[in-house]
Amino acid sequence: MTDVLLTDVHAAGEGRPLDVLIHNGVVSAVTPAGELKSARRVERHDAAGRTLLPGLWDHHVHFTQWTIQRQRLDLTGTESAQQVLALVSEGARASAGRRVVGFGFRDGLWDEPPSLNALDDATGPVTAVLISADLHSLWLNSAAQQELGVRTDGSGILRETEAFAVLEKLDSAADLTTADYQQTAAAASALGVVGVVDFENDDNVALWPQRVDAGVDSLRVEISAWPDKLAGVIDRGVKTGDLLDRRGLVRMGPLKVIVDGSLNTRTAWCWDPYPGVPAAHPHRCGVEAVPIEALAELMTSAKGAGIAAAIHAIGDRANTEVLNTFERLGMSGTVEHAQLLRHHDIPRFAELGLTASVQPEHAMDDRDVADVYWEGRTDRAFALRSLHQAGAPLRLGSDAPVSPLNPWIQISAAVTRSRAGRAPWHPEQTISVRTALEATTGGRLAVEPGDVADLILVEDDPLTCDPALLRDMQVSATMLAGVFTHYAL
């Protein structure tokens, strides 16, 4: 097998040029430039001073939802019900009677709330399903409700568990081709991504090895199992960390449980009520989507089978209850999102050996709605620096399609707490570029002999460049086990 030699690379934060030799998919030598000798045939690539980093991971994606989003009506730029209805009306007219599926509305700050009648007026008899940007609610017209066998109130909105059930009916992995998945994976590789943690609710143990065999082989994938799939995974005898495909790209990951809702849908489970919600409302503090005792039973089953846990918790009550459950069971794992935390819960992550799996761009998407619905509490929202200083390991992810599958967007948001020229939001919760990169690369930035050659070359050194460049960082090459999955040298 031909060795690969990368010449004139720079380690992050260091000025001296290096050469890196890769043999059989593993880094075999790192030397000062010009000193490396190899007795084997070498394929040379001049990095011309670019910065070498370990490959990046997105630690929270919904891969099928992100892939199929390309086929949906884009509502992400809308700011009102009127703007959504205008786009949907146009989409319905152009649909030739086919179902219209839109994605990306955020209704938390709309002046006029969603209305079933207004959506019906905009779409007529065409089935219309509009998915919120956080995936936790749907706006359905009457035709969609009849077709999908659901019923809403006059808002046309379906939330949480009922919404997830409709999403499963709406689209499935069977609706996508191998080429669709390959394009998504290639786009990720072009951004320096070498691996993802996939939290899609599907039979991932079977589907991902099939995708790799079919040619979706430019990423490593850690898969998950939702509660309704857990028994099947246990019956297969699959444990966290087990390899599931012949290429060694797919590994079993954790049990995924969603304990509460989301901020934009006003269903995140909080200690304090949402402003303006009547005292008699059954969910004035949000939704306990899975009862805590049921969560404990699921986690106990997973623990006994050697399966880790990744638990979705956004509101501060949800986070408290999830931390309590991990503590009671003596189990480690990740808390997914960890968006709003009580101050005394922050050090518990490190004390319990838990990782905070966070999505910094959500803070940029949600800053205005948080200022309204979590007023007086935002000093402990998306508290990345507080978690890091308390010793909690961080992992960065996108929650794609909730935000784009692009680690540089997440790194930029974590470092600057700003977007589109706005003043930083709670800048006291920024983290350093090094910390953000380490939370994306797996814990370190140095490339050393013996490392699997999952590597990237970037145009600017992220440790020394202007932070304004991070969001649009140009990736010149990506390698997976020594094979280029993206090449623009």
Q: How would you describe the overall organization of this protein?
A:
Residues 46-485 form the Amidohydrolase domain. One of its GO terms (molecular function) is hydrolase activity, acting on carbon-nitrogen (but not peptide) bonds. This is Amidohydrolase 3 domain-containing protein. It comes from Nesterenkonia sphaerica. The protein is an alpha/beta fold. The protein folds into 3 domains: 1-49 and 446-489, Urease, subunit C, domain 1; 57-64 and 177-441, Metal-dependent hydrolases (TIM Barrel); 65-173, Diaminopimelate Epimerase, Chain A, domain 1. Helix content is 30%, strand content 23%. It has 15 helices and 21 strands. It has helices at residues 63-68, 81-93, 116-123, 142-148, 160-170, 178-189, 204-214, 227-236, 292-304, 316-329, 348-351, 360-373, 384-389, 407-416, 433-441; strands at 3-11, 17-23, 26-32, 42-46, 51-54, 56-61, 73-74, 100-105, 128-132, 137-140, 157-159, 193-198, 220-225, 250-258, 309-313, 333-337, 354-358, 394-396, 455-458, 475-480, 483-487. The strands form 3 sheets. Strands 1, 2, 3, 4, 5, 19, 20 and 21 form an 8-stranded mixed β-sheet that branches. Helix 7 (204-214) links the parallel strand 12 and strand 13. Helix 12 packs across helix 14. The longest helix has 14 residues, at 316-329. It is globular, with a radius of gyration of 23 Å. The two termini are 22 Å apart. 50% of the residues are buried. The mean pLDDT is 96.
